[in-house]
Structure formats: structure tokens, C-alpha cells
Amino acid sequence: MTTRSADLPTDVPSTVAEALARLPRVVDLLAARAEEHDRDATFPYQGVEALHEAGLLTLTLAPRYGGPGGTLADTVRVLGQLGRGDASVAVLAAFTLLQHAEQARAPRWPAPVYRKLLAESRRGPALVDTLRTEPGGGLGLPATVARRAADGSWVLHGRKTYCAGSEALAWMAVWARTDEPAPRTGLFLVRGDAEGIEIDPVWDQLGLRASAGHDVLFDGVRVPVEAAVGLAEAGGPRSEAVLAAERLDLAWRDLALSAVLLGVARAAQGWLVRFLDRKPPANLTELPPVSGPRRPGEGHSLANLPRYRTALGEMESSLIAAEELVSGLAAGVDRGEPTAVNRAAAAQLTVNRTATTAVQQAVALAGNPGLSRRHPLERHLRDILSGRVYFPAEEVVLDALGCVALERGTRRAH
Fold first, then answer.
1. What pTM does this model have?
2. Sign (positive/negative) of CA torsion 242, 244, 249, 250?
3. Where is the Acyl-CoA dehydrogenase/oxidase N-terminal domain positioned along the sequence (predicted)?
4. Is 284 helix (H, G, I), strand (E, B) or coil?
5. pLDDT digits (tens, 9 = 90+) for 29-49
6. pLDDT, tens digit, for every residue of 199-242?
7. Buried b (16+ CB within 10 A) or exposed e, 337-356
């Protein structure tokens, strides 16, 4: 039994089981509003509030802070379900859960700053995101710069892009460099309502339209000395402990976001099954006569045709394999298995491809109705295609995996 922190609301579940019990209701609410927010590209405040009330935004909060201490296995389970309801909301939840999970593994946020985040969580939804990407996506040092003020604090200038939840973030962890002769890089923790922050509403993507991934501009934003985290010389040597922590962070991120994609694919499959069960084929002579009680897949519907059932079987087989891959690796990561951590990148690539193919197959099987905005299937297709913005490029992942394979082969040869 954990001791509830005074910083957390008393009506938010304190155990994983309590949060999971509220999950189906939240998923239904998200699904009911998803089309509206997608069409208008409006932020899903009601859905995020529902996540908060169900305790799902603090699922990975450590027991020492009064949280339920949700594992990666718990996280992928929840995000897979949220992805069925609304992928945009699921992405916002994922980034917040990842922040709390990182703090649970190794406290990086200074205690006074993290207490402020917990206080925000007491008053309502407290979304958090790490802002790394910049226009142009260049390599090397970030263009966002932190300069020393006369009082010793930092002053932040720059622009970040693809900032999920931008307009509603309680806190932003901004990756930036210092203007010192030997620049250091690190994260600067900034309140979402800090003076000098401007949201540039440029997010107009094909999918994930409600996630508000706008650009965020920092113009003279003050950051206290204690809110600069992990400053280290740019390009300098890093200890094995630091590298191991980074690999673990990436494994959590890869598997968490993979779970969201699988949720989208399951939502697409669910709609397709209902569609096929109701849709009569063009040629009724292909169907046998129906007598007695009707079960799904029987009668004058496309679901009664073997070719559709076979196609659904192919989809089901691939999604089961992808889900087992994610859940199995998540459990391995929770057990501290290095192999599971190292294979997460390959898993996300496989899941991304599998989920995308499944949704595309669903659209192909549905025909023209699958591309109509009257139905959610075309939204699922757009969301699954837009999810790749939060993953590294395929060639980067494949090149790294190729290097690992070559190194392993070379060692065996000698």
C-alpha cells in the first residue's frame, strides 16, 4: 500500500487497478468526441480532463510521490486502449506518462520543481512534453540557446517544432545549449504559461489534428538556475550509466508510442468488422440461404464471403504478433533485461509497418466508404500515417540495426 502524497487529488485513483477500471469509460468518451476535434483541429480539453480524473495521467508516478508506480507493461496496455479512442489524446498521455516514468527511475527534475508539477496535477490535468525538434531538424547543437542573466538565472531564446499539446502544456522540458565558450546542452524546465512563450499555430497535419503540435517560440524566457537539468559539455564523453539511462528512456518511448499505433489499428479493424457484417455483397448468389438465429459473419453480408474472412484473419494474425512483441518487450524492460531494451527500436519499426499496413488493408477492404469522412476509418488512416512524425526515420533505425548485426557477425568470425 502506498502513502498518498498531499500533492495529489484525493479523488484520483492511487493504484494501477483502480485506474484501469476507469479506462473503458474514458476510451468511450474519447471515441465519441474524436471526429469533432479532428474535423475542427480543436484541442481535446474534455478528453484530457477525463484522463486526469481517471488517474491515467499520473499512472507512472512513483510510489514515493504517492503515485501508483505503473510499469511499462501497464503503460502500453493503457495507451493501446486510448489509441482506440483518440490517437491525439493518447499521444498527449504518452508524453506525460514518459516524464513521470523517467522521474520515477532516476530523479532528474529538482525536487522543488517537481513538487510544482505535482501541485499542477492536484489542480487538474498537468501535461508535460520534452521539446527537442527544431525547424530544419538539423543535427548537432540545438539552435535554442540559454544565456546567463546578471542574477545567474538562464534566459531562453529559440523555436521548437512538433510540440504535442503545445497550447495546454503545464510544463515544457526544453532541450537547449548554453552560450558559454564551451557550450553545454541540457533540459531547461519551463512553466507553460511563462512570460516570453508564444505558440505559433502552424500544426495543420494530415492526422493527429487534435494534438496541437504547434511551434513554440521562446523569447527571453527566464529559467531559474535549479530548473536547468543535466547540463553537460556538448560532444563530451558520457559515462556508461548515462548511455544506459538514455537507452532505457528510448525503449520506453518506442514501446509506448508503438502501443498507440496498435490501438489505432485495432480501432480501424473494429470498424471494418462492423461494416462487413452489415454490408451486403453485390452478388447475392454467392451466399448460401440463411435459416435460424443469425451470428456475426452469417447471412447476406460481406463477412460471409471467405475472401473477406481470410483478409481479416491476415490482419488479426499480424496485429496479434505485433501486440505480443510490444507487451513481451515491455515486460522484459520492466524486468531489467538489456536485450529487451536494445530491441525496442526494432520493435517500433515493425509495429509501425504492421499497424500502417493493417489500416491500409482495412481501407482497401471497405472500398469507397472507407475513404469517406462520414466514417472514422479514414481518420484512423490519417492518424496512423501521421504517427511517424514522433519516430526516427526508418533509415536511421535500420542503419543502427545493420551496424549491430555486422558487429555481432564480426565478433563470431573471430
1. 0.91
2. positive
3. 30-94
4. helix
5. 999 999 999 999 999 999 999
6. 999 999 999 999 999 999 999 999 999 999 999 988 778 888 88
7. eeebbebbbbbbbbbbebbb
